[in-house]
Design goal:
Number of strands: 13
Largest sheet: 7 strands, mixed
CATH class of the largest domain: Alpha Beta
Distance between the termini: 55 Å
Number of helices: 15
CATH superfamily of the largest domain: Type I PLP-dependent aspartate aminotransferase-like (Major domain)
CATH topology of the largest domain: Aspartate Aminotransferase, domain 2
Helix content: 40-55%
Order of helices and strands: HEEHHHEHEHEHEHEHEEHHHHEHEEEH
Mean pLDDT: 95
Strand order of the largest sheet: 3-9-8-7-6-4-5
Structural class: alpha/beta
Strand content: 15-25%
Length: 412
């Protein structure tokens, strides 16, 4: 009976509260920067993907307002009906130029982009008879949930699509899987990876992965959502970092992190790929256009990054300062250089209690636990921004140290 469903939901929620795995939403009372207004107090903000500090930059706010005045609040349409404005085409052109691609296409989110790309490319018969072809996807086991769901959806429709999941950043395992399939008669093969893995903050060695994929005739797809902005000499992401700027076959990303922090996603690549996705990408075809406010502000974000590389350098300096301080205090972190700094605590209850105690010290950060991360690897994911002052980061380190001693995570 239907009532049984809601009883089951109640039991599941009660269990989450009991096991301290319930995800609480704490409302903010204003904009997010290096600090934010939370629970009536100013707190150091360590939970936002605001890597370059642009989420509320005055020039982005101004550009958002001006775009709304000129182009309106919303389009009330999908792109191919009456949802394409000059502004959308300008942002796609700017994104392509920034990323070294021939063209780019906007989506409502990077989730939508990742969900749509496999289906558009692999579930399409391209004129072949049904069942006469098969494809293969090689995916890092810790890839983002949007990649996982995009692959699942594709495989439900395209029964001839095989999945090979390789161990996290184990490129020898990837090459073994590719080599084993070299004579299997696959039509298309795609290696897909995050550029930066969102829970760990580690960066894929893209030069090595790219070389392996090419040796075996496979395409390369990179979700660079956490890399575009803070990674690479000029913030153009993991391809730039590894000397592959403009060479990745399919590059996806978000406008909701370093590029302003609002919403929206994109795919960048060859022009014929983008033209094809405009025809066959279902999340693009059937979703409303991005609001002009977001589009205008993202153009302003690209302007700022291109004109002031110091923004990227500030993000790096702040990250190095915080990472050094938190490790010197005695905390265990996952090694890396990205603004994602995971502070490892082990159990979900400890992470939740730690985050709650930090609120009393005016530091806002969120815990992550299973199933978002592996069992026993609960953590506080600190995310450092160019908007942080050194004083804010020093305060956060002191607060972590105080709470760590109170909860027995650190020796007194």
């Amino acid at each position: 009976m239907s009532a049984d469903l809601f009883s089951s939901i109640d039991r599941e929620l009660a269990l989450a509260h009991q096991q301290k795995t319930f995800k609480y939403e704490t409302p903010l009372s204003g904009p997010t920067g290096g600090h934010a207004r939370v629970l009536g107090r100013d707190m150091v903000m360590l939970a936002a993907n605001n890597y370059l500090g642009l989420a509320n930059h005055p020039k982005l706010v101004e550009a958002s307002i001006e775009a709304t005045k000129r182009f309106g609040y919303g389009l009330a349409s999908v792109r191919f009906l009456c949802g394409t404005q000059d502004l959308h085409l300008e942002l796609e052109r700017r994104l392509a130029g920034f990323l070294g691609a021939e063209d780019a296409i906007l989506f409502s989110s990077c989730w939508a982009a990742n969900e749509g790309v496999f289906n558009a490319l692999l579930a399409n018969d391209f004129g072949a008879s049904a069942g006469s072809y098969k494809d293969a996807i090689y995916s890092d086991r810790l890839n983002h949930a949007s990649i996982i769901d995009g692959i699942r959806l594709c495989r439900q429709i395209h029964k001839g699509c095989d999945l090979r999941a390789y161990r996290h950043l184990d490129l020898q395992h990837l090459e073994e899987l590719l080599a084993a399939d070299d004579g299997a008669g696959y039509r298309f093969r795609i290696v897909v990876t995050d550029g930066v893995f969102s829970m760990e903050g580690d960066i894929v060695p893209l030069d090595r992965l790219y070389a392996i994929a090419r040796r075996h005739g496979a395409l390369v797809m990179v979700d660079d959502s956490h890399a575009t902005g803070p990674v690479g000499p000029t913030g153009r992401g993991t391809p730039e970092l590894f000397g592959l700027h403009g060479q990745i076959d399919i590059l996806t990303g978000t406008l909701g992190k370093a590029l302003g922090g609002a919403a929206g996603g994109y795919i960048a690549g060859k022009k014929n790929l983008v033209d094809f996705l405009r025809q066959k990408g279902r999340p693009y075809t059937f979703s409303n256009s991005l609001p002009p406010a977001i589009v205008g502000a993202t153009i302003a974000a690209i302007d700022l990054i291109e004109k002031d590389p110091g923004i990227v350098e500030c993000s790096r300096k702040n990250t190095a300062f915080f990472r050094h301080g938190i490790e010197a205090a005695g905390f265990t972190t996952l090694e890396g250089s990205h603004p994602i700094v995971p502070v490892m605590l082990g159990e979900a209850a400890v992470a939740q209690d730690f985050a709650k105690a930090l609120l009393e010290e005016n530091v806002y950060v969120k815990g992550l636990w299973y199933p978002v991360v592996p069992q026993g690897e609960a953590r506080l994911r600190c995310q450092i921004s160019a908007a942080h002052t050194q004083q804010e980061l020093e305060h956060a380190i002191r607060a972590f140290t105080k709470v760590g001693r109170q909860l027995g995570v650190l020796a007194r």
